[in-house]
Amino acid sequence: MIRILVYDDNKSRRESLKAFISFTPGFELVGSFENCNRIEADIRETSPDIILMDIEMPGVNGINGVGIVKKIAPQVKVIMQTAFDDDDKVFAALQAGAEGYILKSASIDQMQQTITEVMNGGASMSPSIALKVMRYFSNRQQQVSGLDNLTAKENEVLQHLSSGLSYKMVADKMGISYFTVNNHVKKIYEKLQVHSLGEAVALLNRQKKIFSFFF
After folding, report:
1. Which of 21, 99, 156, 213 is an S-S bond match for 29, by CB 3.0 to 4.6 Å?
2. What whole-number distance in Å separates Cα of residue 61 and Cα of residue 36?
3. DSSP alpha helices (H): ranges in 82-177?
4. In the chain, where the domains are located
């Protein structure tokens, strides 16, 4: 029996999911809530195997909720469900640790298949979401590709600056002059086509996120 916990701020949606779960052999509804404000207590009290998690909810939203689940009960699987196929939310949900992502417009058969696949150790997404994830990574990879053109010294300077060091501190750490650090930064801006250190660091962090997702 798969124990399922539901989070959705739409009452009619919660009732629909309750009916779906109740009439599906092998599924058991152990709880249904309108937000994740008490999610730690909810999980302790219901001991779910899998959570159907809405993204847009007042208070603690679904993406933050996934992060909490993965910290306190990493064995619990999470399937995100939303009416909006938003690329950034898809990425954020996957980064937070969600095993599945499905649109609320999905059929009953698709919902059942998704829950079963995720429970069996797979990762499930609707075709439209899978395509958007691929496009997301493709677009982001193009944006960070300029980092590959940095020299070893330029990359080292950017790494130090991203960790919070000042130009002077970077110069002292690398044994070079302040003037040299400044020149490296100018070249970094040119190669990455950015106009500030904040933009350059954001690109660097984005590359790290993409790398960590795959590895």
Report:
1. 21
2. 7
3. 87-96, 108-119, 127-144, 152-162, 167-174
4. 2-126, 150-214
Contact (CB, 8 A) for 129 and 85? yes
Q: Fold for domain 150-214?
A: Arc Repressor Mutant, subunit A (1.10.10)
Q: Which token pair is 66?
A: 């996934």
CATH number, domain 2-126: 3.40.50.2300
First-to-last C-alpha distance (Å) of the chain: 32
What are the strands of the beta sheet with 50-54, ordered from one edge?
27-33, 2-7, 50-54, 77-82, 100-103, 124-125
- Rounded to two decimals, the pTM is 0.64
Q: Check residue 34 and report its DSSP letter.
A: S
Rounded to whole angstroms, how far apart are CA atoms 136 and 115? 24
